[in-house]
Amino acid sequence: MPPRLFLFRRLLSTSTSSPAPAPAPRPTDPALLLRLCTILYQHQHDPDDKLHRRLSALSLPTAPSDLRELFLQASARFPLSWRPVHRLLAHLSARHCGASDGGGGFPHSPATAARLLDVLAKSGNTDLLQSTLFSLPRTLLSAAALRAAVRGLAPSREVRKVAALVTLFPECHSARILTFVTDVACSEPCRLPDVAEKVIKRAEHQHGVSRTARCDELLVVAYCRAGSLAEACRVWNGMERRGHEPGAAAYQEIVVTMFKNNRAADAMRVFDGMRRSGVQDDGGACCRAVVSWLCKDGKVWGAYMVFAEMVKIGVEVDGEVLGDLVYGLIARRRVREGYKVFRGVREKDIALYHGLMKGLLRIKRAEEATELFREMISRGCEPNMHTYIMLLQGHLGKRGRKGRDPLVNFESIFVGGLVKAGRTLEATKFVERTMWGGVNVPRFDYNKFLYYFSNEEGALMFEEVGKRLREVGLIDLADILSTYGERMTTRDRRRRAMHGLLESVQSAQDVSC
């Protein structure tokens, strides 16, 4: 559990001594639960008297723990509908109004309060959500409850209501609550950094809560992931004016976003600033991203320097970094150096193989890439979908190339396969190019084609296609398609291939021992 969430959960508890453990609830009767949910669904719009009369006819439990369990089970059947859950809560509260708990008669717990707020948030009833949230005692507000409230109010852009959440807790914890609210608004599934920034400004001006460095860092990361580099730079400059030092996550996101926007020089300046400021790179993630993007841009010398720095500071170098280096060397026609790095790795993984394959395909050496594909399988490294799609694009092109044989070629296999699968609309442009020529076609989606034939019939089809391709001399393409048919067309075949891989690894370990 992250430290900040642990501290947040600590501040939610106001009691000085640990309470006695509550008795375990008894299992809910499935027949009773089914009857209760049926009544709530069928009579959710009926008058209160009629609904209460039907619910009173049920033999509901009386123990508080059993009631809470029944409420949790019933509310789980209505995750997106607030009315059945709210009316059930009203009935239980009216029935147990004599309870000593402060939850309006119903013996609430943090779990039931969080479930109620989650249902109200997902149903979009922001007014009822806010009123319920502020009516609950502070002892019932947990991290899950506050998270559900933010996820319900932020998509509706209720900035005032979200900013008011910091007033639910003591003033000494307001900054920490604001950081938590910003984190929820910027992360999945909200991804609303603009709303989070407005909430921070309103909390500063109206409630006197100062933003933390973590708030600004979350905004920078969220803006970068949303593709708003200008907004991220604006928040970044604001951090420097306030004296806040960005963290490693903010550095990594803004560096990657600058590389994506073809601003490699600015990205390297930010990366150098990170190294001069002494910010610790969490696991070398920023260095890995810089090496990957420098290799993509063809700046292998700069990638080597960052790679040497990673080794110097003790960052673990994995197959992805080495694969990026190999790809950068091969793409710059430095094939001998690329093979030297590749052969120097003792334990090769799929990322390293992919780096070499992608480089060979980049310089139009599809035959060598296919030979590497065969070596990859023989050494026990199981290919994935990306491997097959990359090889098919290397042999046939992203839009499909016409083969030498008039009967066994791209049109007869892939375009005909789309027609056979009933995807005639997707094959229309390719058929027009075959008939008249000179027609601009979109990129052929090999992923969807393999998905359409990922079944037992597809396995037979790939086997037959492999035989025909071998007859006309297209051995490499035949091996790719036939291997996919043997190992990837169905789930059972993928399991058998992976089981064989695990057995080969286990036998190799036994031999080494």
UniProtKB/TrEMBL annotation:
The keyword tRNA processing does not apply. Gene3D superfamilies: Tetratricopeptide repeat domain. The keyword Transit peptide applies. It comes from the Eukaryota. PPR repeats lie at residues 212-246, 349-383. Keywords: Repeat, Transit peptide. InterPro entries: PPR_rpt, TPR-like_helical_dom_sf. PANTHER family: OS08G0300700 PROTEIN (PTHR45613:SF207), PENTATRICOPEPTIDE REPEAT-CONTAINING PROTEIN (PTHR45613). This is Pentacotripeptide-repeat region of PRORP domain-containing protein. It comes from Panicum hallii.
